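Everyone, study these two lines:
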Amino acid sequence: MIRRSAAIALFALACAHAHPRSDEAHPDEVDADGVGDQRVSARAYHHYLDALLAKNADDFATAADELREALLYDAESPHLHTVLAEVLVKQGRIADAEDELKTALALDSKYGPAHVLSGRIAVSRGQTMQARDHFQAAVEGQPDDPDAYRELARLLLSIGDVPAAQRVAERLGDRLQAAQKLSSDDADELVAADRLRDQAAAVWVELGRFQAQHGDDSAAESAFAHARSASPSDPDALMAEAAYLEAKRKYADARDRYLRLLAQRPESPEVIAALARVALVEVEAVIAHARKLLGLAASLEPSDTSASDDDRRDVAAALLRVAVPLLGAHRSADAQLALDGALRLYPSHPELSFYRALALVQRGRPREGALAFEAVERWLKAHEDEPPSPAFLGVEAAALSLDVRLQAALARGKAGEIQESIRRVRALFSERPADEGVSLALLESFDRAGKAAEAEHILAAAVRAHPGSDGLLYALANAQDRSAARGKALSTMRKVLAIQPQHAGALNYIGYSLTERGGAADLREAEGLLARAIELRPDDGAIADSYGFCLLKLGRAVEALAELRRADRLSPSDPVILSHLGDALVATGGKTAALAAFRRALGLLIPASTRRTPNRAAQARVDPPDRPDRNDAKVRVEIERKLRALAP
């Protein structure tokens, strides 16, 4: 009974690509969620529902088996063939998925969902023109399905055809207006109008980001205005526009958009961190605010019976929300002070203690950090029946427990206890093999021991057991990269995108690899991939660096300089970013500033035994770098060459 009730919630997933209602259904056929051309016969219905339940539970083998049983009764259903293709893609069986899609299109050459999935597979292989044909066919065959519009617009932007992408956005806007005029109290029509509204906003947002990244601020602002018009409260549109305004240093406007988001998501750590990040433009002012909060915390300690619980909770939450972006800005000493103040109000609180342990590790004190993580783990075990109170960031106890165990294991490795780190991470991997964080931790712990090749074998075996896990594939690709198998890594990353087109890490890896190749076609594809990665993670310094590096290779030095400065602000003290920033400064005529950037980078890469002792105050305020030594040597040689060229 529970399984059947849960199936109702899955209908929207299975029927998201519906044709408009056509003739009445045959008496022996059941409409999937009441949508024509997705009919499933009564005999196939049981298998179809079980397939949806299995698919939603990531049991793709069972889902595929049930869909094949359904196809015994409905062999001429393009919908069933397409859903089976989606499951096969999740299993990593791309060739089999393509066979199912060909069958679906042979049955109905205008069936939109089959064209959309075929196009996504073509995109993952770099077959741009083939993908465009599929997406255009989907739009023509199913003009009220917004997914095809978005995929087509994104593809057109990736090849630089902005006018065509804008026409796609305008056409989708016209469909939205027509749907809004026709929408009534009918649930199906309301759902269809909502989907059109969401995707229309999303397409305009992508146009806005593209225009902004190409220096056309007027066009970008117009696109963001269209997105607001389509869906005024759409959270993704607000976040994208806020990130754009932040990048343009229009901090007051960015703060306005983030505050609108905060009204929708009062407890969202992402939004809270973004607001604090905007404020961190003036870091000293933020630290001054933190000191005021610490003063308030001192007057509200548990021994003070006149203080209310609400006051304590509000001050502790504010201190945590200041500490999180300070950690992101590599000011972990200041973050730790804020967290210590919050912990005086709520001693041993697991969320506060977790972030304090992170601060200790970032400060270069991994052994203390490991002990702090382990104390949090003990607290969670002792209180497993009572969730942390108050819940500051809304983190579930199970998720926090996994993160604590993972970070404790990694901290042990950073403290030199390599074998203990490997033992703990392997235990976690045996419990959660498809978890991306655990898989990457496995790679890091083995790599620290010089055993990246062994990690690759373990991850490859896990991929064979869980072929639909994009997280496992992503970790495997990273392992292949560290084993110097760049070609294999690139191929594996493309498989990640075939399963999860919005995987920011895979987009960044492929984009950076293509940028390093430097061919004209490679750079065009790289620009599109990296633009999507920035949309997904606008505050990631590594992605901003990749995009800036790509712009520099494309000859757009002024745009590259702005993006690389943003990357340096997001990830300070990163030698690779500083090296690219120096290149952009050279390209724009800033030789003196370029020399300073290269020297800063080199100072971070000089071996500790030969580095002069830094100023103690500065050392306490800025986190030490944490980079693999074998990469440092290569980067150091390259920067020394650049310095010699500028200042012989």
About this structure: The chain has a mean pLDDT of 82.
